[in-house]
Specification:
The protein is mostly helical. It has 9 helices and no strands. The protein has helices at 2-10, 12-46, 48-62, 66-73, 84-108, 112-120, 125-156, 168-177, 180-213. The longest helix has 35 residues, at 12-46.
Length: 214
């Protein structure tokens, strides 16, 4: 382990640079998934008949193997090609389902009596959404974002296969030359990054739950 630690220290600049690329891929794709999934999940609560087919389609898309999805996207114009763009599109696709599903579940789980009370106070649908439904659904929505972000960190390691950079570069290089230290130099920081993001978003989720109770 001491030898592995010194190996990591020697490559610290490269690991830090690739970790920064990795985190940027995850941050951008998760933000885009939230920007798409949150409004769409809200829209599904207003059109319940569309919820089953839309959520079902999103679930089916998630069953596509990640490498196969990258292969499908590469030849597509505008969103395909080699580089970070294709990786971000793929990560958005995989991050969309937990955000979409949790947004829908969180809002529909709000106590109907609370919604009726808001209606009785004369709130418009928009005011009811902003002041009642979304605040009460916040912990569930944050749980979806947490799942999406952690899953994206794992999937982003595969993005190196399409030239998007990230810690997967070290993993693929280590596999190519059969160097376990190089593989670990990519895998260990990726795992630590996932744990750190999970911890931060978990703390935000608990804070949201505490705020909801208070």
């Amino acid at each position: 382990m001491s030898g592995l630690g010194s190996y990591f220290w020697e490559r610290r600049a490269e690991i830090a640079a690739l970790a920064g690329q990795h985190l940027a891929l995850v941050a951008v794709s998760t933000a885009l998934a939230v920007a798409v999934g949150l409004p769409l999940g809200i829209a599904l609560t207003r059109r319940p008949r569309l919820a089953r087919p839309v959520l079902g389609f999103a679930s089916v898309v998630q069953t596509i193997p990640s490498l196969a999805l990258f292969g499908f996207l590469i030849p597509l114009p505008l969103i395909g090609g080699i580089g970070a763009r294709t990786a971000i599109v793929a990560l958005v696709v995989y991050a969309l389902l937990p955000i979409l599903r949790n947004t829908y579940a969180g809002i529909t789980s709000v106590d109907p009596a609370t919604v009726e009370a808001a209606v009785g106070l004369g709130m418009t649908p928009g005011e009811r959404l902003r002041s009642v439904e979304l605040p009460l659904a916040l912990p569930v929505v944050l749980a979806g974002v947490r799942i999406a972000a952690v899953v994206s960190i794992g999937l982003a390691t595969i993005a190196a296969a399409v030239g998007a950079g990230g810690l997967g570069v070290l993993i693929y290089r280590g596999i190519a030359i059969v160097d376990s230290r190089l593989i670990l130099a990519g895998a260990v920081p990726a795992a630590l990054l996932a744990l750190a993001v999970d911890g931060v978003l978990g703390a935000l989720e608990r804070r949201g739950s505490a705020w909801r109770v208070s």
